[in-house]
Amino acid sequence: MSPGSRIAVDAMGGDEGLAVMLAGVARARRQFDGMRFILVGDESAIRAGLETHPHLTAASDIVHAPEVVASDTKPSQALRRAKTTSMGVAIDLVKRGEAAAAVSSGNTGALMAMAKLSLRTMPGIDRPALAALMPSLGDTDTVMLDLGANTECDAQNLVQFAVMGAAYARTILDLESPRVALLNIGTEDMKGTDIVRDAAAQLRGASHLPLRFEGFIEGNRLSRGDVDVIVCDGFSGNIALKTAEGTARFVADLLRRAFQSSIRSKIGFLISRPATQLLRDHLDPNNHNGAVFLGLNGLVVKSHGGANEVGVAHAIAVAAKMVRDDLTRRITEDLSNFEAQAA
Amino acid sequence: MSPGSRIAVDAMGGDEGLAVMLAGVARARRQFDGMRFILVGDESAIRAGLETHPHLTAASDIVHAPEVVASDTKPSQALRRAKTTSMGVAIDLVKRGEAAAAVSSGNTGALMAMAKLSLRTMPGIDRPALAALMPSLGDTDTVMLDLGANTECDAQNLVQFAVMGAAYARTILDLESPRVALLNIGTEDMKGTDIVRDAAAQLRGASHLPLRFEGFIEGNRLSRGDVDVIVCDGFSGNIALKTAEGTARFVADLLRRAFQSSIRSKIGFLISRPATQLLRDHLDPNNHNGAVFLGLNGLVVKSHGGANEVGVAHAIAVAAKMVRDDLTRRITEDLSNFEAQAA
């Protein structure tokens, strides 16, 4: 990232508290040399928390914000406190150009509402969407959006998510014409809601877009690597994402039970431990933490509310890489190029 | 099951063809002594397929149906061919009391439409829902519905699914007051769509119902055993179910890769193979195949379109157990008892 660019961190958001946020930022700092931070929140609490992090202290500025957005705050309530909450102030630093990105582990709905109001959406985009890279059996990760920012979506929203997701995949995964599919409950044309069918019809007809529309994809093929971008409304996307996380943990728990079921399997477990440990790391959601709001004139990364130190560090690394790659400018250019071609 | 009761099998539905259906029925017959079948479909093809299954031949009658419901047939089209398709004829045998249950691996939407029109819903129930038992870390399996029969649902539908799901859990899992939760994208009251929030408000107020309403549950806790019944619309339920299946397979694939990554881990794998084999069996969707339509005046079981012989046998076993337990009568009584108490 360019010298002097800073990442604003909502130090107060999330379920795990200030100490975990600071430990996560400190860990990210060790990975990204020369990165600087603006820690936003209760100034005296942050100063006290920083006492055990001398290197982070040297790499950080503190901006005081007296209030915190609680996990059960409605977006409309949060908007009224944009100027006084750690989340709102962190986003405002991006708007004013003082930070290159903002990272928060707070309430998704509030973050979405504040980021949209403050940073505004890109030309041609009605609503931002929350996108993340999911592990897959393919050569690259898979982009999935929306993961919970928009509980209900119309066909036009889904088409815009497809365009933004493809632009993201071109930028981050370096794919010329990403394969895009809509999440649905079957692959036949007549399956699903009117909304997904309408979105599919629009995408099939939009041959000028720099993507290959592959039709519908079902939940059982999300991680097969068949497509590069999976598009859905925020309700089903959030359910799919969390179900995948929960199932991975469920299988790991069953595996642990299986390995403990006999002396023989315990011995086998000890021998193959390096391999199973690799798998455990690969599946740990903290190692995939950090979803980005696509479609905004500025970078905002959502970290999972329950992320641990490793998870917070990963979300900050996601933000740092996008700052380094100048993602917002590149996606904006990409979208306007194709709008110009289509015109 | 009572002597003489028979299960009607749509021998033609499903992606795997007649041979797999017949092999599955033959396998189920070996598990359930004295069970009899009505095999519905192309008579000469069924006769030819039965040549390698003498015991099944002795336990079966054949009812001819000239047509098959294709996987891309719309429900409205299927309804017009209810009298001539293997699926429609199998359901009609239940309606006329000639079979105690029908099992089909065909198109879910068509099966739902035909079953609803032919068997009608129970008093007080507007729409049937597809329910299945999901493996969990708890003491018992978890009932989940709807899994894809109703793409869109209103709050009233979800409340009825909760009541039917609880009745099913009382009957099948022998629980007096099952814990019921609504699938949502957060646990706070303000999360989700108006529809799930409205359903939650109704369930919170319905203290006369023989269930404990536990509020919202997120996708990452579906298999933790925290609740006994998980209620959702068919779109998100189908996505959650298939995502769970796909993720379990994804983890198993990664585990295989991990075990093959070094000589050391290959040896560990060979030693612990009996344990990992048990886990593989436990997670194989074929061993959980067979979802039941709740809320109909008759038993109809949906088998997965891609089920193998083991899966088909499992779906038939699900039907056989419900016939034996007289499920439809017991759920009807349960629902009317509580309606009487509420009145």
Annotation keywords:
47% helix, alpha/beta, 2 domains, 11-stranded mixed beta sheet, Isopropylmalate Dehydrogenase, 343 residues
Tell me what you see in this structure.
Two copies of one chain form a homodimer. Chain A is of the alpha/beta class. The first copy, chain A, has two domains: 1-120 and 295-324, Isopropylmalate Dehydrogenase, CATH 3.40.718; 126-288, Isopropylmalate Dehydrogenase (3-Layer(aba) Sandwich), CATH 3.40.718.10. In chain A, 47% of the residues lie in helices and 15% in strands. Chain A contains 13 helices and eleven strands. The first copy, chain A, has an eleven-stranded mixed sheet with strand order 3-2-1-4-11-10-5-6-9-7-8, sandwiched between helices. In chain A, β7 (179-183), α8 (194-205) and β8 form a beta-alpha-beta unit. Chains A and B meet through α9, α10 and α11 of A and α9, α10 and α11 of B.
Task: Considering residues with a beta carbon less than 8 A from a beta carbon on another chain, report the largest interface and each chain's count.
Answer: A-B, 64 and 64 residues
Number of helices of chain A: 13
Extract low-pLDDT stretches of chain A: none
Please state the overall shape of chain A, judged from the principal axes of the Cα atoms: globular
Count of beta strands of chain A: 11
Strand content of chain A: 15-25%
Find the CATH superfamily of the largest domain in chain A: Isopropylmalate Dehydrogenase
Mean pLDDT of chain A: 91
CATH class of the largest domain in chain A: Alpha Beta
